[in-house]
Amino acid sequence: MADSKAKPGLLLDIRNLRIEATVYPPGEPPKNIVLVHDVSLTLEKGKVLGLIGESGAGKSTIGLSSMGYGRGGVRITGGEVILNGRDIMKGGKEGFRKLRGREVCYVAQSAAAAFNPAHRLMDQVVEATLLHGMATRTEAEKRAVALFKKLSLPNPETIGERFPHQVSGGQLQRVMTAMALCSEPDLIVFDEPTTALDVTTQIDVLAAIKDAIRDTGVAALYITHDLAVVAQVSDEIMVLRHGRLVECGDTRQIIKEPRQDYTRALVSVHEIEHAEEKPGATPFLSVKNITAAYGGGNVKVLRDISVEIYPGQTLAVVGESGSGKSTLARAITGLLPPVEGTVTFDGRPLANRLADRPKEDLRQLQMIYQMADVAMNPRQTVGTIIGRPLTFYFGLRGAERDNRVKELLEEIEMGQGFINRYPAELSGGQKQRVCIARALAGKPKLIICDEVTSALDPLVANGILKLLLNLQQIERVAYLFITHDIATVKSIADSIAVMYRGEVVRYGSKSKVLTPPFDDYTDLLLSSVPAMEIGWLEQAIGGRKMASAGH
Amino acid sequence: MSSSIVKLGAQRIALGIMLLLAVSVLIFAGTQILPGDVAQAILGQSATPESLANLREQLGLNQPAYVRYFHWLGGVLAGDLGTSMTSGQGISSAIKGRLWNTLFLAFWAAIVAIPLAITLGLIAVRYRNGWVDKLISGLALASTSFPEFFIGYVLVYFFAVKWQIFPGISTVYDGMPFLERMQAIAMPVTALTLVVLAHMMRMTRAAILNVMQSAYVETAELKGLSAFAVIRKHAFPNAIAPIINVVMLNLAYLIVGVVVVEVIFVYPGMGQYLVDHVTKRDVPVVQAVGLIFAAVYISLNIIADIAAIVANPRLRHPK
Question: Are residues A239 and A308 in the same domain?
């Protein structure tokens, strides 16, 4: 305690923090696991420290410890958390309540979920300020409106009267930042504040947050798994893995001269070399002038879409939320029968409705989804999950089926030992691998991959992409790869379709689509992808041709 | 208030009216299927075929069933529920006082039970999985598990017989002073409260606990709100729809399901009236009471539906 007074600029000083939780594995006695192993960090007033690492690294847990908060039964069992010169762990429950919302505020990953749907935005924004008696209601509301202006929200005077569902996701994230700033705290914990947003929106929110931090002089812990994002806002970066410190240094050093292998892997994670294949003579699947609609044809969600897929190649469909990417997949698979246009497969038209397609057509088109955990029956073993299509399409049973399941497990680099495991026992990446094996089991010509890497950590996602490319070499399967992430597209695609508001705005081979001159939307999309460069944000904001939609 | 809410509300009301019409058909058909008719019931076994035919003519019983149904329905819509066979008096005037008594009892039972159940539910959430929660849940479950006649007789035994605090028979009459009336209904209100308490309390607890997992509850905790303020201000408003639903179901039970309690305490309400006339095979009275009960049930459920719609900010304030 004495030496923290010696450094007057020091705001937060976490020493040898140890955080534990009790887990209850099925069929075993409860056991204690250590989430954070003796991590120490310091943060000066007005500085930004980036905490980076994949899920399970303990970033959020450490961030929340600065408010004395443990999510879902997580306990701080060791070390000191010294905030403004006092150890907050000694203050008890009352002490925590007094500092939360006053000295330290929190900005959550999904503002859409973190705002109470039952109350108006303004009531929620000023709540903490009023609770801690730091201003009268009129003063607090005035302050909030000024913050709305600073964060360039539309209609700053009246946006507070709205309910959360009346405001877009990107705007909500900025309102949440205003909420954190309203009580003029010393520290804000940003927990993945832009991860749930489209890239084109992320850039705006990121710029707004950066300006607000600079102008108010608040200190921040910025938690994210995206190194390129954190490089734009942080003074220093701390790399964490499995609850342990990997490396800590100033931003330039971490992204330019990483000292640890793990950091190096994070810095270079986006780069997979994938040589583009030229389209063959005839496509095996062609989508011609498809229009799809909901509500009896009233709400058109796809307009006049035509794309082609060649054997053993990948067509990437890229665009932001609501652009119609997944709807295109639903139209091709027959889940949403198109109102106009046809899908031709191997030279013959496919039935529009899923129910009218023969089993053989079903087998040829398989799907993999974003959320691997909800795409599998949690009560079935991996063997059953992969074995089902083998029985359904090929009538394989017993030992014959098990042998094929084992082969598939080898192909997805998991090994035969997983055959009797349940999905709950697998990691996120392993679950997605099982889903890939299930799709492969039918020996399809086309697999539709709908945001299959979006829910995964960068390194794990990287592994999945490499696996998909490998399998394409072995099985000659084609992919329709739906994603919002341009970096993923570069790594895997042979041809690209850029979608915007239900239409294909740019389509062709990868090299053609990614070579200037660009149309306005493709330009916005490409320029919004964070680059691992200091100062990228300001450059990108300056050079844009159109504004984002704000999802 | 937006047009979509008005539209949804109007739809619910229209559905309710159609449902009530369907119920009226069922009630009428049900009483027609029973052997014997009103004429036979009035004249008894010694009736001659001639006198039966005469009476049927007089009562309009030889008209086809659908004509009689519309005649009955027209009367009901005009406020005339028919004539009781046993007393020969109009059912409407006889029922009015009874219905009022039942509503009076249900009203006071609701006034006690609903706030109590919701408060207990909130407390149970605040101290979830602790001994307070377990005690509340245990007691509430116990009180529901005992049949209402058992609770009724236990109350009578202690409060009326042993300690003689309340009268054992809950007689009320017109012009009775308010306090005396309250004293008379104290024990039936207690019995009813104990019966409906647990259902509402446990539903409140479950609905709020469901919401407690949400990210916005964490946001509220991280603003420094006290545990109870988080539940009251942030969790409860989002759990209101299922709570209103279960409250309305129990309100309906308080009105239409009180037969046993009314009989035990000899309370002159609708339940008593219904039981009396079922034993006398007085079909027009049974029809009338059945229809009123159905109307109460359906209207309370419509109110619950509409309240749940209004409680949803997405419907109240569209984009």
Answer: no
